[in-house]
């Protein structure tokens, strides 16, 4: 069955650095989905991809436990969660004193539900949609100073509807590949290999994604290909990734606007690559 996402236009409820909402159509063109029943994402991130693809099932994996817990609560108890999360968007909460107080509360909490509520607040009030932890596991994104942070009520509702067909798992990307079978297609959005090789801005969840991890991902894609599973991987287009994906069946290049840098003058378009390892 051919999948068509042209009529789907859902937004993630989260601000997410490196989110793929802007290039969903390009992913659609390059991701083989005919006859596939399940989409697997080993790096689900903010969820923009699966939200805009209509599959019977989704297997969504990420190493960030806070993210996976949050998605689980939106799936299983959306009404309660949305109501309680919205309370952090009223009153005087959009103030640096409150932000740093709640950030500390988040870092001290061991309760998954409380952390999920605060995660939404921090995501929408913190700087530039970043999700960053220090070496001790503490969330350390500074206050964003937005005039009126947006509460994504409708986005949560839509997310919950699609999430009924999804399984959310916290773990390494290899777990996702081990579960992949003939009725699955895999889309990978790993932490990008840096354009500047001295940069280490890949530690979104507290663990740096190394060159060896990038190679391990390709090995997983090649093994999945032998089982008839197709995998599409996105990344920066650099000398390193050009060599890394030399064995891919097809490479597609595109220019994408990036807004992560704190310096507006150096924000702009970067060249990206999509590498397809076709299992059919």
What is this structure's SSE topology?
Layout: H1 24-30, E1 38-41, H2 48-51, E2 57-62, H3 65-76, H4 78-86, H5 96-108, H6 112-125, H7 153-163, E3 166-170, H8 173-178, E4 184-188, H9 211-226, E5 230-236, H10 239-244, E6 250-258, E7 268-277
Parallel strand pairs: 1-2, 1-4, 2-3, 4-5
Antiparallel strand pairs: 5-7, 6-7
Helix pairs in contact: 3-4, 3-6, 3-7, 4-7, 5-6
Describe the protein in words.
The chain is an alpha/beta fold. The protein has 2 domains: 21-63 and 171-277, Rossmann fold (3-Layer(aba) Sandwich); 68-154, Orthogonal Bundle (Adenine-specific Methyltransferase, domain 2). The chain is built from 10 helices and 7 strands. It has helices at 24-30, 48-51, 65-76, 78-86, 96-108, 112-125, 153-163, 173-178, 211-226, 239-244, and strands at 38-41, 57-62, 166-170, 184-188, 230-236, 250-258, 268-277. A 7-stranded mixed β-sheet has the order 3-2-1-4-5-7-6. Strand 1, helix 2 (48-51) and strand 2 (57-62) form a beta-alpha-beta unit. Helix 4 (78-86) runs antiparallel to helix 7 and helix 5 runs antiparallel to helix 6. Residues 1-7 have low confidence and may be disordered.
């Amino acid at each position: 069955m051919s999948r068509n996402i042209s009529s789907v236009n859902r937004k993630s409820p989260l601000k997410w650095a490196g989110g793929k909402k802007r290039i969903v159509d390009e992913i659609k063109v390059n991701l083989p989905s005919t006859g596939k029943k399940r989409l697997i994402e080993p790096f689900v991130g903010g969820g923009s991809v699966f939200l805009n693809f209509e599959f019977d099932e989704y297997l969504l994996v990420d190493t960030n436990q806070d993210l996976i817990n949050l998605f689980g609560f939106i799936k299983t108890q959306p009404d309660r969660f949305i109501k309680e999360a919205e309370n952090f968007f009223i009153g005087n909460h959009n103030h640096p004193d409150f932000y740093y107080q709640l950030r500390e509360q988040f870092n001290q909490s061991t309760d998954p539900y409380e952390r999920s509520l605060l995660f939404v607040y921090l995501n929408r009030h913190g700087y530039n949609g970043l999700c960053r932890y220090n070496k001790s596991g503490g969330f350390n994104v500074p206050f964003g100073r937005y005039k009126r942070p947006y509460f994504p009520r409708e986005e949560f509702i839509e997310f919950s509807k699609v999430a009924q067909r999804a399984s959310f798992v916290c773990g390494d990307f290899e777990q996702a590949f081990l579960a992949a079978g003939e009725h699955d297609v895999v889309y990978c959005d790993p932490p990008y290999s840096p354009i500047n090789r001295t940069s280490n801005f890949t530690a979104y969840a507290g663990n740096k994604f190394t060159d060896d991890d990038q190679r391990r991902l390709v090995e997983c894609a090649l093994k999945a290909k032998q089982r008839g599973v197709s995998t599409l991987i996105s990344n920066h287009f650099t000398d390193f990734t050009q060599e890394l994906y030399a064995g891919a069946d097809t490479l597609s290049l595109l220019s994408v606007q990036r807004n992560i840098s704190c310096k507006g003058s150096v924000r702009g378009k970067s060249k990206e690559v999509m590498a397809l390892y076709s299992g059919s």
